[in-house]
Write a structure and sequence with these properties.
The protein is an all-alpha fold. Helices cover about 75% and strands about 0% of the residues. The chain is built from 2 helices and no strands. The radius of gyration is 16 Å and the shape is elongated.
Amino acid sequence: MTSGTETGGVTGTQDKDYNLIWYVESCLNNALRLETYIQDAERQKDTEVAELFRKAQADSRKGAELGKGLLRARLGGG
């Protein structure tokens, strides 16, 4: 958390869990945003940039999957 003082009293979610939820959401949003960037590069026939964005998108998806796994384990979803 940016405030440095919230420990779950306001949100009802411990900082470490909140941060993990934020991380997953950010990774997923990044993967979506990169899809637009990939399409833009492909329209311009810039395969080098498109490939860079594809790799970044794969990394974002991987981060989201790792985060979701931790969330499942920590929040009781198996």
